[in-house]
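Lab notebook, bench 4. We co-purified these components, and the gel suggests they stay together. Before we commit to crystallization screens, I want a quick structural picture of the whole thing.
Request: model the full complex, all chains together.
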Amino acid sequence: MQKKKKRNAPDLSSLVLEKVPTGIRGLDQVTHGGFPKGRTALVCGGPGTGKTLLGLEFLVRGALLYNEPGVCVAMEETAQELVTNMASLGYDLPALIRSKKLAIDYVHIERKQIEETGEYDLEGLFIRLRAAIEQVKAKRVLLDTIELLFLGLKNDGIVRAELRRLFHWLKDAGVTAVVTAEMGDRTLTRYGLEEYVADCVLVLDHRVNEQISTRRLRVVKYRGSSHGTNEYPFLLDDQGISVVPITSAGLTHTASTERISSGVPSLDAMLGKKGFFRGSSVLITGTAGTGKSSFAAAFAGAACARGERALYFAYEESPSQILRNMSSVGQDLEKWIKRGLLRIHATRPTAAGLETHLATVYNEIQEFKPAVVIIDPITNLVAVGDLHSVKAMLTRLIDFLKLKHVTAMFTNLVFGSGVMEETAVGISSLMDTWVVLGDLDQGEAERMRTLNLLKSRGMSHDTRMHRFTLSDKGIEIHGNK
Amino acid sequence: MATSKRVPVRDPANDGSEKAKKPNARPFKRPLWELRLYVAGMTPTSIRAFENLKKLCEEHMHGAYKIQVVDLLERPTLARGDQIIAVPTLVRRLPTPVKKIIGDLSNTERVLVGLDLRPAGGWR
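Here is the predicted assembly.
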């Protein structure tokens, strides 16, 4: 590719900074392609923010996905500790070391053992690094945490001069390096490493807000390249790091004209006799016990019956509870789970912050590739964030879903009758279709369930209030033909 | 300034003789200093370090020493074993504990302190 382009003289693409994909989920999107090739990227953050893991994953993914072996100069943790840490993320470092795709050199400096007298340089470190690079023919290097040199050696002047030499040397060696550093008080890093490594700087952050923690990543600087400038939430799970590259993706998605069934024939009839648009988002609001989850289950069941995958995020009930309850209204969801068409992901909303939930949803969607997503209910997410952040999160989520042409159904619990809840109104503008469920107290012994199709963009739809019933035969809306 | 910690005065000769009194100790054992000097090529600094070391050993160890010079350019893998990052580095392998002195060893007092031949702070 690159060679072909070079023939056309005016084409600038050959002059543009080359990048090395990190292979870390989402990070390449945020950095628009990865780290600068043959240069050094700085990853800084406070303790426990995941700097080392990010660096190691850069090496491991490079070795596994791009056939670029890596060298890790570990100054903080021993090779054995790193192996253990990475095993928890599902990576087998010893196998990589055996197959010569990875070399770990544990550099230990014990200041107590060391006396300094006269001139010296850090050629010893250089020689070790060079030997390790040659051993595996490395293309990637991680220096974790090179700053410890300042703690181990007394002569700051020598350390600084040698670090400068080291980064030049790395550049000449043509390896792409990642350097981790501890966050400083007023500067990005405690010892001002950003003075030396200034091509690409990432800041990791781990915040705890009202007892709920969220990890965030930001590209502070990327010389010679555009990059996403926002703070992106990221997850550390059993598959390593994943950055959620979604900000508001904008309104660039193409709208589909394909229609899909809601799973309730009589509701499809109200929706211009065909159902929802594919890739649209549907909001179902209602007071407690009005049957929101039943609509959600019917929608999921219909998708599975078409042979599509459905992903159900449950924030209120456990999977088995959902299965039991839905079988009472004629939805046998269990068979779809067995066939691998339906997946239920149940968590407590308070188990994580909003951004973490968003990241989980994003990861699950990337992995399962569903045609239909149900979030039941979004109300509970409001419990962990204020309306503003919930709306921001939903905007990002909906943009992402639309780009993927995933049809989404959100349920929302509202309290009381008549007055629309602030949340419902707040998020309804993001939704293409809004179904309001309610009760009508008729002064008799029986409650009457009502359904009103408040809006449905892009189609002529029934606007009347209808009565509906829930039975073991499913949902039936009366009074429309 | 130099180190702030105080190193207890220790005569390596005594350590050796104590061991020699044990029945299974080797009979010929004299107090022996085993030193290793790591360098990276014969640079002026490494030559200076070696000369300083030689002089110091003659003066203070009275022939009971062994110096091994390791050129890391020739044997790069040896750097890992003794955890060498700076050159020149002098490693006192015996008597234990292992001590490291980095630099060209130009400050004799500091080297003696580092080798436990002098208490920190020097003679006054």
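The first helix of chain A runs from residue 2 to 7. Worth comparing against the SEC data before the next meeting. The two ends of chain A are 60 Å apart (CA to CA).
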